[in-house]
Structure formats: C-alpha cells, structure tokens
Amino acid sequence: MDKFVIEGGERLQGTVRISGSKNAVLPLLAATLLRKGTYTIGNVPRLRDVNTMIRLLELLGVKTKWAEENRLSIDTRDAENHVAPYDVVKEMRASVLVLGSLVGALRKATVSYPGGCAIGERPINLHLKGLSALGCDINIREGYVDVTAKSLKGSRIIFDTITVGGTENILMAAVRAKGETIIENAAREPEVIDLACMLKKMGAKIEGEGTEVIRIRGVDDLEPCDYDVIPDRIEAGTFLAACGITRGNIIVERCVPRHIKAIIDKLKEAGMDIVEDGDSLKAAMTRKRPIAVDVKTIPYPGFPTDMQAQIMALMSISKGVSAVQETIFENRMMHAAELRRMGADIRVIGHAAIVKGKDMLSGAKVMATDLRASASLIIAGLAAYGTTEVSRIYHIDRGYESIEKKLRGLGAKIVRRKDESMGH
Ligand code: EPZ
C-alpha cells in the first residue's frame, strides 16, 4: 500500500487543471450498454473507479481501449452478458449503475447487491422501487438483485429521498420504456444533467433534467455517440479549500464555476477572494486564518456532502467556531478523529461536528478511511507544522487523478511512498 508524505507550510501558487468528473463518467460509461455500437468518451479521468467500471463493462462483453490519455473508445457490439458479479460490485457501489442500462437494453440484469461502505449503508431500495414502477420483476437471492421485465412501461415515480444514482438508473431504463415516465423529487446534480445530455445525443427524449421533475418519453431505438465528460466539481472545490488553508493564490482552470456556486459562496464567506473568469477561477486567501463559517450539506445546488470533509479541514484553523452538519450520509465524520490527531479541536455530536479553530495543526501519521476523508487529511497536512503521513491512499486514487502531481505543480511538498508499515 502507498502513503503520502507531506511537508506542511508551503503556500499554493500557480495553475491547476481540473480533470473529468468521476461521478459523471461512471453513469456515462454505464449508458453505453443501452445501444450496441462504438462510442468515444472524452475527458475521462484516469481513476481507480473508472478502471473498475471498465473491468465491469468488459465482463458484460464490452471492449474498451484508451485512444488517448483521457479518451476512451468503447465497443458494445458484443455486449450480451447481464451479470455484474460480487467481486466487482464490492469494489465500487457505483457498479449498480449498470442496472438501469442493462434493463433498458436487455430487459434483464443480475447485479450483486451492493453492500454499504465506510460512509453509510448506501441502500438501493429507491432504485428498485423505480424499476418495479416501470414494470420490472425484482428478486433478491444469494446476495444478487435479479431484475427482469417482459416490457417496460412509462410511469410516474416519486422518490422519497433525493437519490443521484436512483435518478440516473431510472433515466437509463425509462429512455427505452413505452410511453412517458415522470421522475419527481429527482436529483438535480450536474452529473445527472450530463447523463441526460448524452442520452439525448443518443436520441432519447428527456426534459427537465436539472430540475426536480424530469420527463422521459421512451423511444424505440437509440444511436451510439461520442461525448465529453464535464469537469469534476468536487476536485475543483478540493483545490479551492487547499488554496484557502495554505493562504495560497491559484488559478483553477477547465472547471464550471456555476457547478460550484455553493462552495464558492461558502469559501468567500470564510474570507477567500474568488473571481470567476469563464471556465477558470482565480482564488486567493490573504487572511492568516479563515473566518469560521457554518456548513450544512444538502442536495444540489446546496453545499455538497462530497466537500464536507474538505471544508472541515479548512475550518480546523479558522478564527472561531463552526458547526458542520452532514444531512446526506449517516457515517461521514470519520475524518474528524484523524484531524484531531493533528491537533484539531472537533467534537462530533451525531451527524454534526463543532469545530473550534486552532492557530496551527501539527503534522502526524494519519489514516485515510474513505475518498473525501483522504482529501481532507491531505488538505490539513499541507498547512500543518512539520510532516504528515497519510496512509491507505488507495482511497484517494479512486477519485482524484494524479493529485500529488497537481499539488506539486502548485508548490506543495508531497511525495508518494511505499507504506512498509501497512504490509503489501
Ligand atoms: C452519489 O452517490 C455520488 N456517487 C456520491 O459521491 C455522492 O456523495 C452522492 O451521490 C450524494 O451526492 C456517484 O455519483 C458515483 P444517493 P449515490 O443515492 O448516488 C439514500 C463521492 O465521494 N438512498 O444520492 O449512491 C442514501 O443512503 C461519492 O464521490 C436511499 O435511502 O447517493 C443517502 O443517504 C460518495 N435509498 C441519500 O439517499 C436509495 O435507493 C443520497 O444517496 C438510494 C439512496
């Protein structure tokens, strides 16, 4: 296993280029199952989770090839298999996103029932409720979800909870259902819009993506297409938080500022100067310490849960006390204990944390527990006094493309090392 060794105290300066969005590319890759043919997907980030999705697609009969560093050629002409096995799904819950496209294409899917993960139980009951509303029969046996449908018929589906993956799965099945499907209380995330845009490019009839009501009129057939993935809004937010904690001055390029309005507003409230300039952001923190701000994670367009750990790291050196409330996942505070090892004063009470800003954190050996927790520990290490070692960074490799290279490009002292203490 690898670790990051970080020497704190460098103020980030320079330009960083944002990669394609992990949470957009995964459903886009799944959507290629909807129509046999050849596709080219551009701006694909080189991530562990992308490799896992590629492995899953190849098990389903898809052929893939990297045409360029971030451009993937996909050939689904021989994709006939409908079983997503346990040993892939256990690697990545987002494998469940092939449910909708397999049902849309083959009227059947057998997917290993995704277990929970570090941040929560991650149920899929709403995905299944939506699929059964479209006419699917669903059986759960031996840890697999068996979905079959004689035919798919449009329906009105109201999600009890806003679910990004649920909205995406129903979108992919509904484009091939007879008649109209209406999804109410739909997720509004940019990644859902990106999927809808690709499906429309394939000939799907979709309206309302990005609002809480999405209407889909089923079509008899679709066409393969080429498509470029949107930039990763969480990566952009992560670099802004890193700039804030190191009192840096950076340019974040190839991002979509309107996708991160809630993050930008919150960081400005905390004392950062952030100026939009087309698809770039100029960010600087001239204050020695950020202003303490309160944060509550809610579905898009609110402050994203995927940025909660990162802003908690920033708040750990604020001038004041901030309340950080997590309303989406039931166990997304594990980074607090590791930040405390670096001297942060954080009290977790249920799904909220009270963060009393300290003048300075101190470097320590800490352990990543999940993807965004890893990002928060790296952010803290960039500003901490002395050396921080972040172990189990396979978590970070899931969702950030070449993060240490990008941070070194901004002047950070961060290197990847073999972690002898953690075995191989
Ligand atoms: C997506 O997960 C993202 N992953 C997550 O990013 C992100 O945190 C999350 O959306 C929320 O924005 C991908 O897009 C691959 P949900 P998803 O369904 O779709 C409950 C990261 O760090 N729920 O919107 O799995 C669920 O338990 C990852 O990049 C049900 O109860 O999230 C949660 O409390 C982490 N029943 C809430 O809804 C269901 O059937 C939101 O989950 C489905 C969800």
Give an overview of the whole structure.
- By secondary structure, this protein is of the alpha/beta class.
- It has helices at residues 22-31, 48-59, 86-89, 98-106, 125-133, 164-174, 190-201, 233-245, 261-269, 308-315, 334-341, 371-383, 394-397, 403-408; strands at 2-7, 13-17, 38-42, 63-68, 71-75, 83-84, 108-112, 137-141, 144-148, 156-158, 180-184, 205-207, 213-217, 226-228, 249-253, 273-277, 280-284, 295-297, 321-326, 345-349, 352-356, 365-367, 387-391, 413-418.
- Strand 8 and strand 9 form a beta hairpin.
- Helix 1 packs parallel to helix 7 (190-201), helix 5 packs parallel to helix 6 and helix 8 (233-245) runs parallel beside helix 10 (308-315).
- The chain is globular.
- The N and C termini lie close together (5 Å).
- Ligand EPZ is lined by residues 22-23, 26, 94, 120, 122-127, 161, 163-166, 187, 191, 305-306, 328-329, 371-372, 399.
Largest sheet: 4 strands, mixed
CATH hierarchy: architecture of the largest domain? Alpha-beta prism
**What is CATH's topology name of the largest domain?**
UDP-n-acetylglucosamine1-carboxyvinyl-transferase, Chain
Bound molecules: ligand EPZ
The CATH class label of the largest domain is Alpha Beta
The overall number of domains is 2
Q: DSSP strand (E) fraction?
A: 25-35%
